[in-house]
Write a structure and sequence with these properties.
Number of helices: 7
Structural class: alpha+beta
Order of helices and strands: HHEEEHEHHEHHEE
Strand order of the largest sheet: 4-6-7-5
Strand content: 15-25%
Helix content: 40-55%
Shape: globular
Largest sheet: 4 strands, mixed
Number of strands: 7
Radius of gyration: 16 Å
């Protein structure tokens, strides 16, 4: 799957000093919670995209609470298309958390956090299927989303739902695939894009 990358310069400021791993685990949980909100209440999530649309100036928009701007490929058009999609989308059950899928996602997040590479295939960790099968047995079908840039869960999930510049909107389709029942998320720092999150989906998973 070809992915357009957002170039964002932003610093994460924490009022309480916490280990990096704890912050990353917290973000991973928040990302799945946001995905589940979008799945269970798509019309509510469309409202968040409408608010985002109002921050656009041309093909870029300002991040809330920041002077940094996100440069997009399609501009408001992709946001409008995503809003229309969510307005018609029927609610779906939430995804359950899988430690095994999260471990598979973490392999790629950790590797790319060191190398600065992007994409679904790691030189050491391999592709999604190879990583997932190291941690258990999957059922039905599997898929993987990767987001680069935002260090807030909502911004990360909105980016994947809008899927700006991505032919076929594959990341959005994965989020709203009815056959998926479980997912695992891993987030971490990325040397080129500040933050990255990997989400592995499955129709069922046995660790």
């Amino acid at each position: 799957m070809t992915m357009k990358l957002f170039y964002i310069t932003i610093c994460l400021l924490l009022s309480v000093v916490a280990p990096a791993s704890a912050v990353e685990e917290n973000l991973a949980g928040q990302v799945l919670a946001e995905i589940n909100l979008a799945r269970t209440a798509p019309r509510t999530y469309a409202g968040y995209l409408r608010e985002l649309r109002g921050r656009f100036r041309g093909k870029s928009y300002l991040l809330p609470g920041s002077s940094s701007r996100v440069i997009t490929v399609e501009g408001r058009g992709a946001v409008d298309e995503a809003i229309k999609y969510l307005s018609r989308q029927k609610p779906l059950p939430p995804l359950g958390w899988s430690d095994g899928l999260a471990a598979a996602a973490a392999e790629l997040a950790e590797e790319q956090g060191r190398s600065g590479a992007t994409g679904h295939v790691g030189r050491q960790s391999g592709g999604p299927k190879e990583r997932i099968e190291r941690h258990g047995r999957w059922e039905g079908q599997i898929a993987e989303n990767i987001g680069y840039g935002p260090n807030g869960a909502r911004e990360m999930v909105m980016q994947l739902i809008i899927d700006d510049g991505v032919k076929g909107r594959g990341h959005r389709k994965n989020i709203f695939t009815k056959a998926f029942t479980t997912a695992g998320v891993a987030c971490g720092p990325h040397p080129r894009f500040d933050t990255m999150c990997v989400i592995d989906f499955s129709g069922g998973f046995r660790e």
